[in-house]
Each structure stands twice: as C-alpha cells, then as structure tokens.
Amino acid sequence: MPELTILTENELRQCVVLNDGLLDATAKAFEAMATGNATAAPAQRLWMPGGGGAIQARTAFMHGASHYAVKIGPTGGGQGGSLLLYDADSNQLRAMLLDNGYLTRVQAAAAGAVAARKLARENAKTAGILGTSTHAYRHVEAMLLIREIENIVLWDKDSDAVATLKQRIEANHKVSVQTAGSVEKAVRNSDIVVTVTPSRSPILQADWLRPGLHITAAGADAGNKNELAPEVLAEADIYVADSREQCRWSGELTHAIGRRADQRGRPDTGDRRSSKRITSRPNGKRRDHGGRLDRHRRTGRGDRRASGDAGRHPGARHQDLRRLTDAVTRLR
User: Fold this and answer.
1) Which of 35, 64, 67, 307 yields a CA-CA distance of 20 to 30 A from 315?
2) CB burial of residue 50 (10 Å; 0-12, 13-18, 19+)
3) pLDDT digits over 171-206, tens only?
C-alpha cells in the first residue's frame, strides 16, 4: 500500500491560498461540469438525533484527473471537516486532508468570486457582507480579488461578531469598513452583496433591490435555511445556480418553488447546470443596468480542485420563475 500523506489545517493553509490562480482553477471546474467533463454526486446528509446538526459527505471527479476527493464534515462548513484524497486509477487512499473546514471556506469564496467576476458590474466599489460566519472573511478576500472594492459594509445580529470581523479586515486589507444597523441599509448601499448567514427565514427583501446589484447567496446550504425572499428571484434579471439538481431541494430556489412568488408558473426543476454561463465571457452582452443573482452551493467539485494541489504538496425583471434560470443564456 502506498504511503499515506496526512496534512493538517496549518499545512494546508500554506499549500492552498485564495488567489487568482485558485479562482481560475475553480472556473475551470465549473466549465468542466457544464461541458460534461466532470461529475458531482448528490450530497449525502445524515441528521443527528436531538438537534445535533448533520454530517454530510460530498464528492466530485474531474474526468481524466489523477485523484478525486471525498469531503466529510458537519453542515455549514464550519469546524471539524476533512477530505480524503484517492488515486483515480487504483481507488487507494493517498492523503487525509484535515482542513477543519478551511478548504470548504476557501472554495466557497472562490466560487462566489468566479460568479461575481462574470456577473457583477465592472465599476462595483462597495461589497456588503451579511453574516459573520466562518465564511464571511474569505468572501471579503475573494471580492477584493475581482473588483477594486473600496468599501465593505458588514451586518449581523451579533454586534460583537461584526466588530471582530471589522477589526480583522482592517488589519489585513487597505479598505474602508463600515457597519450597517440593518440588512436593508447594507443592501441599499452595496454594489455586490454576499449572504453567509444560517437564517431560516428571509432576511433580504425584493423592495431593497436596485439596478446593477449582484447578490451571491451562499448561506442556505440546507433545506431549512432561507436568506432571500422568493420575490428577490422574481425580480432578478439573471438567476444562476451551479447545480439546479441540488438547489431545487436545498437553497433559495426550493423556497421560491414552494411559495410560487410569481403565480404565472413554476420553475423548471430539470438539472441544466448554469456553470458554463458563469465561466464563459459574455462578449459584451452583459447588461450593467440589470440585477443578478448567483446561487451557489458546495457541490464538491471545487473542493476536489482545491484539494488536488494540497495532495501534491505538504432575466427581464418581471419574468415568471419558470424562465429565471433560462435567462442566463443572455451571458453567451
């Protein structure tokens, strides 16, 4: 049996860094999925009794790659996660990546940045971060990579957590950081909004949207979570989901289906992935006066891309919901 490599979180932080190279690798993973050159298995989740949360497993495979990874950890991408890296030919375990959720946080931020890089206004200057979860800081770092962000606006119910996040950002980045007293204020004052909360009821309302706003909704990673009011989806010019197969049972789309925000029709729940629309240059067809909504969930392929390097080293505004996901074809 080949030697097993074990990397800790500290070692992985040296191997995998959130930078332009990782964003490009993530974009290639999306494109591979859209063109049929990658396969992602549906996430498996085991709920623990007594309200103890859930354990989930995810995996994906880039066709022709030398390795594939299986991620196991608690829901929410917080502490305690790990990845197992296997040889694609022999299926032998080659590495254990004890990342404690670090790779998940980096990959999720990279996915959001890839979407914003293609969809957000070129002149976006203010990014609003809703939530202070372990993902929030990584999303700030990612937004700074893809736009010349001058202002960060933070909101969370926990004012102490906001103060801590503000201090961390200011200590590491030359950017102005403000706090907002309400979600509405944060949204109305931002060009890009990232939601990373565990909310189980909508915190972002359609009345607060304005032309050109880009939203990356990253927090609702389970069926009982919901950050965006269904009307937000109905108001968006473009809705992009990395995998509708997953988003139809977990995330904002499943709540919009249930509520039927626009009574003229239900969304098509067929699994026609939108990844290619994110990774392909729109050739000038992007409309900077319209609103865009990126809904990404962690399908596993980004974790496979992030862990691979570590393993080698210690629509029109009032459309009905049926047409929302198809509206991404405008990006071609």
Assistant:
1) 35
2) exposed
3) 999 999 999 999 999 999 999 999 998 877 787 999
Strand, coil or helix: 57:
strand
Cα separations in angstroms, 280 against 19, 35, 118, 301, 332: 20, 11, 8, 18, 7
pLDDT tens profile 303-332 = 444 444 444 333 333 333 334 334 333 332
Phi-psi region of 288 (alpha: psi -120 to 50; beta: other; left: phi over 0): alpha
Q: Is the pLDDT of residue 297 over 60?
A: no
- Per the listing, tokens 């999303």 go with 139
- 276-294 core/surface letters (b: 16 or more CB in 10 A; e: else): bbbbeeeeeebeeebbbbb
Taking the C-alpha atoms of residue 40 and residue 299, their distance in angstroms, rounded to an integer, is: 7
How far apart CA 137 and CA 141 sit, in angstroms, is 6
CA distances from 298 to 103, 242, 328 (A): 11, 9, 20
Give pTM, 2 decimals.
Answer: 0.78
CB-based contact 247:297 (threshold 8 Å): yes
d(CA 135, CA 324): 27
How far apart, in whole angstroms, are the C-alpha atoms of residue 30 and residue 34?
6
CA distances from residue 87 to 12, 38, 61, 106 in whole angstroms, order as listed: 19, 16, 11, 23
Residues 97, 98, 104, 109, Cα dihedral to 10°: -90
Strand partners, 176: 151
Identity at 26, one-letter amino acid code: T
Question: Assign residue 249 a region: left if phi > 0, alpha if psi is -120 to 50, beta otherwise?
Answer: alpha
Average pLDDT, the chain: 77
Q: Is the pLDDT reported for residue 262 higher than 50?
A: no
